[in-house]
Task: inverse folding
């Protein structure tokens, strides 16, 4: 296995050890899976949900994940627990599979620090519509997203201090618009005493009815106390099934998730009674999301005097060079570079007739200036085979 996969396996262990989360999933599966149930486990990893589904009485579990290293370990664990004949592991993404039977229960844990992560929502919409029996169970059932303005100079300074101050008398402020357009998982715990306002729900994701992967919402607060606002934190409350839930809210038992900090470009002095409004938009773009957050802080006692107004977008955190921008322009006429020519040659040779060693030999002959040895060429070919071959 490659080192990146070893790191993945370590992460899976940390996830399993998060008993608040894993215990909640175990209870949800025991409540939802009946003897003879068909279960679809999306993003199975090392197979923990598939194993728990078998424990609960599932007749068959289709466990799906694109990570080949994780699935190899999952197969070994299934054998060790006596469930190998009831779990079918599928190395693929869920939107590309077609199991021979529909699932009674779809279980997934595709979230990152927030439920909006990569292609998680489109995947779950597809699974509910295409792979679940009518009236079947989706685990999780829904997520409620919350936000609150936070007073945390530590969180904010981690973003900004290296760009505002340094011991070398260098002006690094050009980086400030970039770093304050990034939201990050908070290091350490955000506690209720750090909040300047009462938490507000700004969106609910109901996996039983969800149709769009875009999630947008608003929150408006009246400041509960005087302080300095540095941005806001976002977290989720998840309901797996009726009566089974967990949360990464400030003050909740710690989980692997933490909460997410959305910084403001600069700290804002907040007085008790000030009104703070935030509009949050998360829209899918490629394999991830573009986030926008617009903030207004005003004092309602002085004819709604605006104290601060910010409009931020995660696209600003994408630093693209002029060359990169030129290559993305609609009128750009692309020509393959050497790496592209090598990849094209490899893909043309993957015609079902040659083994990887033969392809590597031809690559070495054709691009002798790029590869010092046949082994170097084989490594290149092997990477493309892993990605593109069946």
Result:
């Amino acid at each position: 296995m490659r080192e990146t996969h070893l790191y993945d396996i370590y992460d899976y262990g940390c996830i399993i050890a998060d008993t608040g989360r894993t215990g909640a999933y175990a209870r949800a599966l025991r409540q939802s899976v009946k003897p003879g149930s068909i279960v679809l486990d999306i993003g199975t990893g090392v197979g923990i949900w598939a194993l728990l589904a078998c424990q609960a009485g599932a007749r068959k579990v289709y466990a799906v994940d694109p990570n080949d290293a994780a699935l190899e370990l999952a197969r070994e664990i299934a054998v060790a627990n006596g469930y190998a004949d009831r779990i079918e592991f599928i190395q693929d993404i869920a939107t590309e599979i077609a199991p021979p039977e529909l699932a009674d229960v779809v279980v997934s844990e595709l979230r990152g620090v927030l439920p909006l992560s990569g292609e998680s929502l489109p995947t779950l919409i597809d699974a509910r519509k295409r792979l679940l029996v009518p009236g079947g169970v989706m685990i999780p059932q829904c997520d409620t997203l919350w936000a609150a303005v936070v007073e945390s100079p530590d969180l904010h300074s981690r973003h900004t201090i290296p760009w505002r101050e340094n011991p070398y008398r260098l002006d690094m402020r050009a980086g400030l618009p970039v770093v304050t357009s990034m939201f990050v998982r908070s290091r350490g715990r955000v506690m209720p005493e750090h909040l300047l306002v009462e938490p507000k729900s700004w969106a609910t994701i109901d996996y039983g009815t969800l149709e769009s992967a875009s999630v947008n919402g608003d929150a408006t607060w009246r400041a509960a106390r005087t302080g300095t606002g540095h941005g806001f934190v976002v977290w989720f409350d998840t309901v797996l099934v009726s009566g089974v839930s967990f949360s990464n809210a400030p003050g909740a038992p710690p989980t692997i998730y933490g909460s997410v900090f959305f910084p403001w470009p600069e700290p804002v002095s907040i007085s008790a009674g000030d009104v703070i409004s935030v509009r949050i938009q998360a829209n899918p773009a490629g394999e991830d999301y573009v986030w926008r957050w617009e903030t207004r802080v005003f004092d309602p006692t002085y004819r709604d005097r605006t104290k601060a107004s910010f409009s931020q977008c995660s696209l600003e955190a994408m630093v693209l060079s002029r060359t990169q921008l030129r290559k993305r322009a609609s009128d750009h006429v692309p020509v393959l570079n050497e790496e592209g020519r090598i990849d094209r040659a490899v893909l043309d040779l993957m015609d079902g007739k040659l083994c990887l060693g033969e392809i590597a030999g031809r690559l070495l002959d054709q691009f002798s200036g790029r590869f010092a040895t046949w082994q170097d060429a084989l490594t290149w070919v092997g990477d493309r085979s892993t990605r593109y071959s069946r």
